[in-house]
Amino acid sequence: MKALRIVSCFALVAFLLFSPALLKKGAQESFTDARFVRKDKGYQGTIVLYHIVRQRPYTGSLTKWLSDRAEAYEKKHRGTHIAVEGMDEAAFSERQEYGRGADAYSFFSGSVYEDLLQPLSDFETPYRDGLFQTDRCVPYAYSGYAKLIKSEQNGQSAYYGSDLTAARLGAGRDDAPEEKADVLYLDLRRAGDLIRYKDGFAVSELEPIDSFTDAVCWLGIDRNADEQKAAALTDFFAFLQSEDVQQTVNALGMLSVRSDVRDTPPEAILKPIYKTYATVKTVDPFRYQKMYDSLLADAVSAREGDADAARRFASRLEEVIR
After folding, report:
1. For residue 34, what are the contacts with CB-CB under 8 A and spacing of at least 6?
2. Tens digit of pLDDT for each residue in 212-244?
3. Which of 153, 190, 194, 284 is deepest in the core (most CB within 10 A)?
4. Cβ 249 vs Cβ 255: under 8 Å
5. 95 torsion bin: left (phi>0), alpha (psi -120 to 50), beta (else)
6. What's the number of CA atoms in the CB half-sphere (13 Å) around residue 229?
7. Are 172 and 159 within 8 A, CB to CB?
8. What is the torsional sign of CA 302, 146, 105, 59?
9. First to last CA, the chain
């Protein structure tokens, strides 16, 4: 009992010493603020993200994939709405001319110039060999290229296609020159379309070319986005690069940018392509944007037999590869 009285005395002394300060602090706080004012949940409102379609995945829609991921993010961040708008490069250029920018951009290498974007903080993502973050954008998925050998039916060539030089600039785009060919170099979307809509022509094998690709998709924040929007977008970008989300890009026939994600192709025909693209050789997205027109002009001239243009093309391409 004596020990209990001693402990009680010490507790009483401590209470008398510290309670005035605690009571004073409590008196200075608003009861309403303490119980009913919401904690800061970050940006509350709508954020607009343009997805610029220079290239497309092997199957499906990257615009829809982004929209679905935005909805999943919104469920965990009530009050934040991310509106994803897909468009081709021509529509994007038109909006830029009329001053209709977005808060953020999803784009393939070469579609956006560096000054449009604001600097980004460093991400902790473990990138696959050959991929990287720049000062103003981060990668979140990539596709690539493959080749098909000529298939014949009744003595007629099955395919019309571009050569390897044109493929380096995005074979299969509407402005890519094409001619009858024994070997067709093409992007994975066009390969997928041939496989899906072969019209009687057998496609049994898709062969890799090498590990080069310019079909890397990046994320960047508009230079005019305010601090709150930029913070929310940075968090959304990190969400898109998270391991769980990265595993879903394979359903599109695209590959993850993370070294700790094991890619699983949606179709067996893509296995050799995925194996080749386990490491990547790619371009700096902004240097590529500056030199793309020159590269395209050299590619066209090289196809017409200009040896100097072919050498210039190879030299310029090496210059933009990082």
Report:
1. none
2. 999 999 999 999 999 999 999 999 999 999 999
3. 190
4. yes
5. alpha
6. 19
7. no
8. positive
9. 79
CA gap 159, 161 in Å, rounded: 6
Per the CB < 8 A criterion, the answer to whether 138 and 123 are in contact is yes
Packing angle of the helix pair 227-240, 62-76 (nearest 10 deg): 110
Helix (H, G, I), strand (E, B) or coil at 6: helix
Question: 5: pLDDT confidence band, cut at 50, 70 and 90?
Answer: low
Q: State the pairing for strand pair 104-108/45-53.
A: parallel
Do 197 and 85 contact (CB within 8 A), yes or no? no
For 199-210, b/e burial (b = at least 16 CB within 10 A) is eebebeebebbe
Strands 281-282 and 212-213: parallel
Query: Which DSSP symbol is given to 40?
Result: P
The one-letter code for the residue type at 186 is L
CA distance 144 to 163: 15
Q: Which amino acid is at 158?
A: A
User: What confidence tens digit (pLDDT) does each residue in 160-175 have?
Assistant: 344 555 555 554 444 4
Share of the chain above pLDDT 70, in %: 74
CA distance 114 to 151: 43
> Cα separations (Å) of 9 from 20, 161, 272?
18, 92, 79
φ and ψ of 13, to 5 deg: -60, -45
